[in-house]
Amino acid sequence: MGMITLTINNQKVEVEEGLTILEAAQKAGIYIPTLCYLKEISAMAACRMCVVEVEGAKTLQAACVTPAVDGMVIRTNTPFVRKARKTILELILSDHPFECLTCERGGNCELQRLAEEFNIREVPFEGERTKMDPDVSTPSLVREPEKCILCRRCINVCSEIQGVGVLFPNERGFKTFIGPPFGEQLGNMPCALCGQCTLVCPTGAIHEKEQIEDVWEVLDDPTKHVIVQTAPATRVSLGEALGLEPGSIVTGQMVAALRALGFDKVFDTDFAADLTIMEEGSELIKRLEKGGPLPLITSCSPGWVKFCEHYYPEFLENISTCKSPQQMFGALAKTYYAGKSRIDPKDIVVVSIMPCTAKKFEAQRCEMVDSGYLDVDIVLTVRETAKMIKQAGINIRNLEPEEYDAPLGISTGAGAIFGATGGVMEAALRTVYEMLTGKELEKIDFEAVRGLESVKEAEIELPDLTVKVAVAHGLGNAKKLLERIKNKEAEYHFVEIMACPGGCIGGGGQPIPTDTEKRQKRIAAIYNVDKNMPLRKSHENPALKQLYKDYLIKPLGEMSHKLLHTDYAARRKY
Prior knowledge:
This protein is of the alpha/beta class. It has three domains: 3-77, Roll (Ubiquitin-like (UB roll)); 129-208, Alpha-Beta Plaits; 213-564, 3-Layer(aba) Sandwich (Rossmann fold). 34% of the residues lie in helices and 14% in strands. The chain has helices at 21-27, 79-93, 110-117, 153-161, 196-200, 212-219, 238-241, 251-261, 269-290, 302-311, 325-341, 358-363, 382-391, 413-416, 423-437, 475-486, 516-531, 542-552, 558-564, and strands at 3-8, 11-16, 51-54, 61-62, 73-75, 141-143, 168-170, 177-179, 206-208, 225-230, 265-268, 296-297, 348-354, 378-381, 455-462, 465-473, 494-498. A five-stranded mixed β-sheet has the order 2-1-5-3-4, sandwiched between helices. A hairpin with a 6-residue loop joins strand 3 and strand 4 (61-62). The longest helix is centred in the middle third of the chain and has 22 residues, at 269-290. It is globular and about 75 Å long. It starts with a strand and ends in a 10-residue tail after the last helix.
């Protein structure tokens, strides 16, 4: 690819051919404000905040979609450009609710930031305002159309990245709104509830359904025994939500903060991730040896499972019958743990700290009551958890690291890597290999399934079989992989699918903003956690061995099937 030279603000800039003006300016370190633009999705030029003067052009040009051409002369900071951008902002604000003090995104809103940058102190335009009720029809997400600025980011991430496509522009002109077709509620759509839309929304037009007050209420109830579990990815993202660098590992400080909030016990979902490997690995071995639908597809991601129920019901028999680690933990908390602790399970409240908005939906599924109660009672995202810690006046930087409570807080590095795409696959292979061969695995790092490549493939040599595996992250990539399998263009024995780009480290409940660079830092941190663990294989977890000895007896046994396994049913698309 050739190079071109253009002039931006009297500065000569040499960049590759094929870039836009915005990309060329960014390479040169020249700031151009944007609202609708996102690097990883199609540019829409919907907001026009990035307009610039191009010598020879009759009108201002949107920098995010205008190709950079050799010899082009561009000005990004003239009085005319500044006035145009400020007017655009004022027009957007004229139809925006002034609820910054009470808004979900107050202090972390791109529109608010730009209004401050452009020194907007009053809005000169008055007139009719959009009036629409919030959509609270799902257990995971809330839509507030009055806060929408029509940037279309959510449309693009839902359609292009996730391949779901349940959000569209409706109506025309001033009446335009973004949402499901014909004003339908999100709860009636085949939405995976992955929450990727919440990560890209610049305002508070779509966000998780908060349950912070529900947690405070049970923590303040002396009749309740409130326990909390933390998902693998939270240890490398909660710090970020509290102002630390992306990828900061805050495992011990997180435990200390949750204990300070008043939780009776602080446990680790990684324990249940190790348990998942024992059950799912045994399920894979059983299907390989005795026959069964192949490939076996992982079931840890509730967004992926819901997507499959809507769009690919023919693959439901391929999905592992194992519940996700979150739900396995909840079922054990109200049976095994309740018995050991001599606490009536009706008085136990299980709270989950998750990187995922779909986990809120999963916790309320009708299948998740095998303990005799709702297995998991309340799910908080990383963002909600950070708010609670701030509300309590806790500074995570000042906390001494503390250890998880036993026995449901003991885990291995294999459980930790569940937080990254490919992690479930790698953890399973570490255990399945040794279960099948009876030999110790010499190299436990399966690097072929790591990284952010859209679909990763690998082959694992066993004594009598070459096991073919594949890993996909993001539902758009999952769709491509499933189509290949359906059309018999590819054959695998084991497939891992995570709904969100990058896996749980890029989940819909993670800190905003989340981009590729932050995903990579979180993934690197997850593998550092694994590397520094004294035990790195799920089947070596001593608490897990005791669990089977005292209670479950064996993987895929009668008690395991009752508490830890489930099945799924097809859902309508519309």
